[in-house]
Amino acid sequence: MAILAAKYLYTLDRPDPIRNGFVEYDEYGTVSRVGECQDPDSEEIFLDGAIVPGFVNTHCHLELSYMWKLFRKGTGMAGFIDQINALRDTTPLSGKIEAIKKWMDVMWERGVSAMADISNCDDSFSVKKDSPMYTRTFLEVFGTEPEDCGAVMDAVLRLQKKALSFGLDAAPTPHACYTMSPELLTAVSAEGLKSGFLSYHSEESQEEEDMLKYGRGAMWDNRKAAGMSVPPVTGESSLLYFLDRIRLAHPEPFDEHVLLVHEVCMDKEGTEAVKRVLRHPFIALCPCSNIFIHNALPPVDLLRESGIKLTVGTDSLSSNDDLDIVRELYCLQSHFEGLSLGELLTWACLNGAEFLGKEASLGSIEVGKKPGLVFVDNLDAEGRLTAGSSSYRLA
Q: In the chain, which ranges are continuous DSSP H helix?
């Protein structure tokens, strides 16, 4: 058995940290005891910061790690998509896999114990198989032309079969309203829901909303100029359009875990609709990516009030300077008043574990769990994150 102690111990099974707390764990990282130090000075290892559970990165595109520092910032969604299309296959496979492994290792060392990762191909499968990090792989599809629906579905089911051969948890998932025909959006959602999980880019930008509501804007113009089909103009938000399409997959309400990624433009009408249709909705906040692409952030106060469980993701290195959960949390703390470190960690650890269905072992520091133990340093006098805060894995 080993013991670690710190000024703050965030177990997350209670609202506040244990001051001068300790955690005892075995050689496998399984927690055997937690509590308050009777004499902190007597502890062999006492850390001036916070011990927290392993993080859960609920939105990443690991296979795009080779695109680090290749993108211009502030281009808006249409400009970002143009860059993705231009740069997607400009690096050899060996370079892609090297970048995937490097950043998988970086995330693990910084304390990420589990990840919901988006894949469009099989580049990351072998790295995930060999990593101690748990991953659920969402096999994302695109296809704006209705006649291509069958072929796209055949291809993603072949990719799923390959992912399963690596021992990965993997299933198809839709990308976003603007990259899919209505038929494909429903078909892939129906297939993905069979696994019990779905991830969906939703309301990431005002450009997306302008497409669906009004049939205008930069993304609409790009699609029309390229001769591609565009989604139907509904006069409603892209989120409501998504809910309408998945209702065709099976009757509501939905018991599956559905992750709505970004939600920069979510409003109260959207939150209420989500709660009516989905029994287990989650939202992935990726603030650094949102600022990188279009200098916007989701309405976090509204999302908190809604009661929908929030999680934290990094998105990819095509739309972020790093894959650092602590940096994402500091970004949120800096832009929204009243966010305690305990609440932020609940999003980044416990809620993420619940989305993945792994809360029995991950997400909180409790006896019998093996969540990973992580140290967060450079807190201020009130125990809040600072610009210098970072994290590293203890166990």
A: 76-87, 93-110, 125-130, 149-165, 182-193, 206-214, 218-225, 238-246, 268-277, 287-294, 300-306, 325-335, 341-345, 352-355
pLDDT in tens, 127-151: 999 999 999 999 999 999 999 999 9
Burial of 207 per CB tally in 10 Å (0-12, 13-18, 19+): buried
pTM of the complete model: 0.96
Alpha carbon distance 286, 199 (integer Å): 14
ω into residue 253 within 30 of 0, thus cis?
yes
Other C-beta atoms closer than 10 Å to the C-beta of 395 total 21
Q: Are 57 and 107 in contact (CB under 8 A)?
A: yes
- The structure tokens 């005892």 sit at 24
User: Are 373 and 25 within 8 A, CB to CB?
Assistant: yes
Domain around 144:
55-323
What are the pLDDT digits (tens) for 351-394? 999 999 999 999 999 999 999 999 999 999 999 999 999 999 99
- Domain assignment present for residue 265? The answer is yes
3-state secondary structure of 63: helix
Contacts of 87 (CB under 8 A, 6+ apart): 67, 70, 71, 318
Specify the number of domains making up the chain.
1
**CATH number for the domain harbouring residue 90:** 3.20.20.140
Contact call for residues 1 and 31 (beta carbons, < 8 A): no
322: amino acid identity, one letter: D
**Two tokens at 176?**
């976003």
373-376 vs 391-393, strand pairing mode: antiparallel
Burial class of 175 by CB neighbour count within 10 A (0 to 12, 13 to 18, 19+) = buried
